[in-house]
Amino acid sequence: MRSLAHFVMRGRLQALLIIVAGAGSLLFCWISAAALALVTLRKGAGYGASLFMWALLPAGTLLYAYGDSGPMTLLVGTMALALVLRSTVSLSLSILAGVGVGILIGLVLMAFSAESLSQLVAFFGEFLGGLEEQLSKEGQTVVLPRPEAGQIAGMLGAATAMVSILCLLLARYWQAALYNPGGFGTEFRALRYSMMVSAALAAVAIALWSFGEQYRSWAMICLLPLTFAGLALIHARVDALGQSKMWLTWFYIIWLLFDPVKFMLVLFVIADSRINFRQRWPKVSGKELHKHDEYDRKDD
Fold first, then answer.
1. Which residues contact 108 (CB under 8 A, 6 or more apart)?
2. Average pLDDT for residues 180-208, to the nearest whole number?
3. Angle between helical axes of 45-66 and 12-23 (0-180°, round to 10)
4. Which residue of 34, 79, 149, 211 has the smallest Cβ count within 10 Å?
5. Which residues contact 288 (CB under 8 A, 6 or more apart)?
6. Contact 47, 88 (CB under 8 A)
7. CA distance 180 to 111
């Protein structure tokens, strides 16, 4: 992956090739988005905007021909987060901006993609209907809830925001690997939110969750920054105590499989915003802190 980042940063033609090629693919649009974020972070907003306009051509063609807005929304979301990070040099604010990206994309889909959402509602209805028939063969009638258009729009908004944040983190990792090795790890492990921000995000998520099933996907958008802050907290603990990386592997497996672990992680983040666990953990000696200004500077 580092060789790909190096190829992208060799020149405008190389960056344009990777970004445009990926933007027209359902499978590789995330590479295009991450490469776009990389050149924006390193070269500036103007340089990134010109490549972004070219990337819209294949993404727009895919939207027009097949009605798939996924690559388009991912490019827009990642570009927006990259611009925030470029201007603020704050990873926490950039990830927090992902909440706005997810909500905005969900609202845009509800306003302009009603037909596509209706098709998804019908698809889920048929799929869940077939699943109900299979489960009901044992003699007990099973009824599964059907998602509505608003719920699906929230799911797509949450998914796009999450992948946009992941693409931004990949771009930041590439940037550090090329210009400041080890800097990304230090920056990510320091990711943390104040008590006011954490409480506000949790309160909005709880309020949306209490409104019913249709709004729960929107509540998940508000929990994205806290989720990434929780993952950063786990990485910080492993690094501070000098634990094996295998411990992280097992944690991610458990985190992916069990939903209660996800909510427990959010609770730990809220507690961390008040207590600051990082200051209380013993640290392995000999660790060097990496400065960010070296790979945040503009190229001449």
1. none
2. 93
3. 30
4. 211
5. 182
6. no
7. 43
Work out the burial of residue 76: count CB atoms within 10 Å of its CB; fewer than 13 is exposed, 13-18 middle, 19 or more buried: buried
Cα–Cα distance measured from residue 51 to residue 38, given in angstroms and rounded to the nearest whole number: 11
Q: Concatenated DSSP letters for 51-93? A: HHHHHHHHHHHHHHHH---HHHHHHHHHHHHHHHHHHH--HHH
What residues contact residue 248 under an 8 Å CB cut-off, 6+ apart?
234, 235, 238
CB 71 within 8 A of CB 160: no
Question: Which residues 6+ apart lie within 8 Å of 185 measured at CB?
Answer: 176, 235, 239
Type of residue found at 211: F
Per the listing, tokens 């786990």 go with 234
DSSP state of 292: S
Q: How far apart are CA 161 and CA 61, in angstroms?
A: 22
Closest CA to 101 of 27, 23, 158, 44: 158
Q: Tell me how far apart the alpha carbons of residues 189 and 261 are, in angstroms, rounded to a whole number.
A: 20
Q: What is the mean pLDDT of the chain?
A: 87
Q: Taking 60 as the threshold, does the pLDDT of residue 96 lie above it?
A: yes
Instruction: For residue 205, give both structure tokens.
Output: 């998520």
Give the side-chain half-sphere CA count within 13 A for 201. 26
Phi, psi angles (nearest 5°) of residue 239? -70, -40
Q: Please give the backbone phi and psi of residue 39, each rounded to the nearest 5 degrees, phi first.
A: -70, -30
Average pLDDT score over residue span 200-216? 90
Do the Cβ atoms of 152 and 124 come closer than 8 Å?
Answer: yes
Distance CA 229, CA 181 (A): 22
Residue with tokens 């940037």: 175
Most confident of 79-93, 141-155, 208-222, 234-248: 79-93
Contact 237, 190 (CB under 8 A): no
pTM: 0.90
Diameter over CA atoms, the chain: 72
